[in-house]
TrEMBL record, chain A:
Keyword Transcription regulation: no
Organism whose genome encodes this protein: Wallemia mellicola
Quaternary context: Part of the multisubunit transport protein particle (TRAPP) complex.
GO cellular component, one term: TRAPP complex
Name of the protein: Trafficking protein particle complex subunit
Keywords: Endoplasmic reticulum, ER-Golgi transport, Golgi apparatus, Transport
One GO term of the biological process aspect: endoplasmic reticulum to Golgi vesicle-mediated transport
InterPro entries assigned to the protein according to its UniProt record, in alphabetical order: Longin-like_dom_sf, TRAPPC
SMART domains: Sybindin
Family the entry assigns: Belongs to the TRAPP small subunits family. TRAPPC4 subfamily.
Localization per record: Endoplasmic reticulum; Golgi apparatus, cis-Golgi network; Golgi apparatus
Automatic annotation (TrEMBL), chain B:
Cellular localization per UniProt: Endoplasmic reticulum; Golgi apparatus, cis-Golgi network
Subunit-level organization: Part of the multisubunit TRAPP (transport protein particle) complex.
A Pfam family it matches: TRAPP
Listed CDD domains: TRAPPC5_Trs31
Highest taxon above the source species: Eukaryota
Keyword Transport: yes
SUPFAM superfamilies per record: Ligand-binding domain in the NO signalling and Golgi transport
Key words of the record: Endoplasmic reticulum, ER-Golgi transport, Golgi apparatus, Transport
Protein name: Trafficking protein particle complex subunit
Upper classification of the organism: Eukaryota, Fungi, Dikarya, Basidiomycota, Wallemiomycotina
């Protein structure tokens, strides 16, 4: 039996650029920076298509929320300002939406309140890294 | 922000609004200085102006109607007053330590493990000597000044494993 773990976290700015990527497990394929950026851009496009093809027109669709495959789940959380938080987890992870809410909270507290962060630019913030490590990294006995 | 009827609580300010204000202050000044030292002295000066008002206000609120207001005469008394009372009235807690420097007789240090003013600030690598707590050091400097102890106060970050934000306020008496 495998424990539900978080593989990685991506943060996309409102233009679809990858501003933050952090892996929490060693089971991921090694992608180079260029491939990562292309994938993030594609995901941004798919997300936009999803909100356009929504059949219900009375309320605006918030786009793709979950992508399931037999080896991983990809959960998307869209903020009001268009920033996207993407979490790649083991299939059927029970709390991925809740985790993303918590990530957003930490992001608002550490990244957005930091004077040295430029909005829409890549995130380099030690405090953010440590805070994420605290609850996204699987404990040693699980890996 | 939760509204409280309690008078002490109603004097509190949401930390989030402070974080955004302070962040803009730093960004504004960062574009107008030549180096870290100049930025720190600007923050120190801003803190100095806050400290002048804080000392006056604190004295008025605590002892405004008292018949014999307390006079701080000895240096230790003044330092303890800053470490405990000024800290509590500004930050809602006391500082974590007050020490005398071993190397120099005229130096004292106040340390705070979790300085509340720069709680959400993460210093980038290219500015790693910067301490935004220079603002606090300005407050300390002006309170000392107001109580008749001329000094030069600076802030230094001394991170530990447990407290990555730990900051020491170094007081150098002139």
């Amino acid at each position: 039996m495998s424990f539900p773990i978080v593989h990685s976290l991506w943060i996309l700015n409102k233009a679809g650029g990858l501003v933050y990527l952090r892996s929490f497990s060693d089971q991921l394929p090694g992608l180079n920076t260029n491939e990562q950026l292309v994938l993030a851009g594609t995901l941004h496009g798919v997300h936009a298509i999803c909100s356009r093809i929504s059949p219900i027109t009375t309320s605006k669709s918030s786009g793709m929320q979950l992508l399931e495959s037999d080896s991983f789940d990809l959960t998307v959380f869209l903020t009001r300002t268009g920033t996207k938080f993407v979490l790649i987890t083991t299939p059927g992870h029970p709390a991925s939406q809740a985790l993303l809410n918590r990530v957003y909270e930490i992001y608002a507290d550490t990244v957005m309140k930091n004077p040295f962060h430029i909005p829409e630019m890549p995130i380099r913030n030690e405090m953010f890294d440590t805070a994420l490590d605290g609850f996204l990294r699987p404990p040693d006995f699980m890996t | 922000m939760e509204l409280q009827v309690d008078q002490l609580k109603s004097q509190q300010v949401a930390l989030g609004s402070w974080a955004f204000l302070f962040s803009e202050i730093i960004n504004y000044n960062l574009k107008r200085v030549d180096g870290i030292a100049e930025l720190e002295s600007k923050l120190n000066w801003l803190g100095y102006r806050v400290g002048q008002r804080e000392l006056e206000l604190y004295k008025f609120r605590q002892e405004g109607t008292a018949k014999n207001p307390r006079q701080h005469t000895s240096l230790i008394e003044v330092l303890q007053f800053i470490h405990t009372h000024i800290w509590r009235s500004l930050f809602g807690k006391t500082a974590d330590s007050l020490e005398k420097s071993k190397e120099n007789a005229n130096e004292y240090m106040i340390s705070d493990n979790t300085p509340i003013l720069s709680r959400s600030i993460s210093i980038p690598k290219d500015l790693k000597n910067l301490s935004t707590e220079s603002f606090t050091s300005g407050i300390v400097e002006s309170v000392l000044d107001g109580l008749n102890f001329k000094s030069k106060v600076t802030a230094h970050s001394v991170p530990t494993e447990q407290y990555p934000q730990r900051t020491t306020i170094l007081i150098k008496l002139i």
